[in-house]
Amino acid sequence: MQDKHQNSGSRVALVAHDLKLAAAVQDHLRRHLGQPAFLCSFDDIGNYLARDTDGPMLLVVAVPADGDSAYRLVQDICLQKWPPVIMLLEGDADTGPRLRRLDPYIARRFRWPDDAESLVRMVRDRWGRGVEFTDAQHESLEEILRRRPLAQTPSLLSLTERVALAANHDVTVLLTGETGTGKTFIARLIHEHSPRHEHRFLTVPCGALSDNLVESEFCGHVKGAFTGADRPKVGKFAAVGAGTLLLDEIDTLSFEQQASLLRVIETGEFEPVGSIETQQCNGRLIVASNLDLEEAVQHGRFRPDLYFRLNVMSFHLPPLRERVQDISPLARGMAARFNRKFHKDLFDISPEAMAALESFSWPGNIRQLENTIQHAVLISSGTELTVNHLPQALQDHAYHATMHTNGNGVESLHRHRDLTERNVIQRALVNHGYSRSRAAESLGISRVTLYKKMKKFGLMDIPLQSV
At 174, phi and psi to the nearest 5? Predict the structure, then answer.
């Protein structure tokens, strides 16, 4: 539901389900402001919102049923700290007391058509000209990835161009990193923005398969191929069709299985177990490993020929403990998602709860963070997610972090200062492509000082440029 005349210079985002009322408001704003308003449905507005979206948003509530959509959208925007200023435009219908609970979170409420002139005056006086909503229809893939999918992981923004390159070209991709760092997320991102996005995305958890089942899982088998094979089975190489196949924990495969995989990668050919009929794999392979495969090759635990064939394009995802700046946007995005799922009334995460999340080491990485946020949202009550909603382990961690002082809070203050300094340094490294020289310059310190601080805060293991 978009206006044919909309453009990226639109100054107001009209979010509505009622086309008739929205058209009347849109026409009024066009005549009095000289620009068309951006028109979008409640269902689609998420495609245009981002952490850097700039512009006033007018939620049109024509009937009581629209009220729930408006309520949930305001919650999403508040939880994720998106910047649009929200205004509410109500029609003649009585929308009930629930919407009045939004008053602390919106700029103003208008009644249509009684307050039409007041609406125009407020937009003109407060925003003037030049405020924009991004026109997602004309964005490049790099812009789409940076604005939406990778916006919740600032430390990975430097990968945007390479992720777009991997999506646009049919090459084998190698993903490495600890369990739960987001390897499946990156694999899906590549698939969903590739020419194969209309086809299947399948995952094979190699580490969960016993040695005698790996070949059957990959290649399938014919009836009677082995004891228990009472019916034929289609393997993942065939089932994926023209889609994308993610082979997770590839480092767990035996040398013999690695050799079979190398053949499929090089020729696309394989035979089901018990068959002499050669079949063709038409899917794209993305492989993931929890280990450093180059180190595994050096220690004789992984075939060098397979490693070099896989390493056409590789991505290493650091653990969450090295990506503190990702925790807040990730946690807020997860909270918004679970808030909708469980029909909760959350609008924010308390500073104390966020501090507890950011100071935790997260051995289970993003997966553990997601489970934590789901638990917290599920048991939450009220409009704010607090420390008391977090699992006991995080409550204990937050308590000890606060109590480990010399009696007057000095150590707690130092800890908070160190955490803030670490985040600032890490963000500077990300923003400058991991160049120490440019990061140091932006921070106003020498490279030697930056090096010492990186060593102090455990930032030496992330990939860096020396210039």
Answer: -110, 125
Determine the Cα–Cα distance for residues 398 and 387; give it in Å rounded to an integer.
Answer: 8
Question: Is residue 3 pLDDT above 60, yes or no?
Answer: no
* Cross-strand bridge partners of residue 40: 15
Q: What topology is assigned to 141-316 in CATH?
A: Rossmann fold (3.40.50)
Range(s) within the chain of domains with CATH label 1.10.8.60: 322-403
Contacts of 204 by beta carbon, 8 Å cutoff, 6+ apart = 217, 218, 236, 245, 246, 247, 248
User: Which pLDDT score, from 0 to 100, does residue 164 have?
Assistant: 95
Other beta carbons less than 10 A from residue 364's beta carbon: 17
Q: What pLDDT, on a 0 to 100 scale, did the predictor assign at position 422? A: 75
Q: Which residues pair with 269 in a beta bridge?
A: 280
Report the alpha-carbon distance of residue 60 to residue 75 in Å, rounded: 16
Query: Do the Cβ atoms of 62 and 91 come closer than 8 Å?
Result: yes
Residue in this structure with the two tokens 């789409």, named with its chain if needed: 144
Q: Which fold has domain 322-403?
A: Helicase, Ruva Protein; domain 3 (1.10.8)
Distance (Å) of CA 450 to CA 323, 417, 418, 438: 17, 16, 14, 11
Helix (H) or strand (E) holding 60: strand 57-61
Say how far apart CA 467 and CA 461 lie, in whole Å: 17
Q: Which residues have a Cβ under 8 Å from the Cβ of 380 and sit 6 or more positions away?
A: 344, 346, 386, 389
Range 236-248 average pLDDT: 97
Q: What is the pLDDT of residues 264-303, one digit of tens each?
A: 999 999 999 999 999 999 999 999 999 999 999 999 999 9
The pLDDT tens digits for 429-467 are 777 767 888 888 888 898 888 888 888 876 765 544 433
13-137 CATH pick, 3.10.20.340, 3.30.465.10, 3.40.50.2300, 2.40.30.170:
3.40.50.2300
Q: Which CATH superfamily is domain 413-467 in?
A: Homeodomain-like (1.10.10.60)
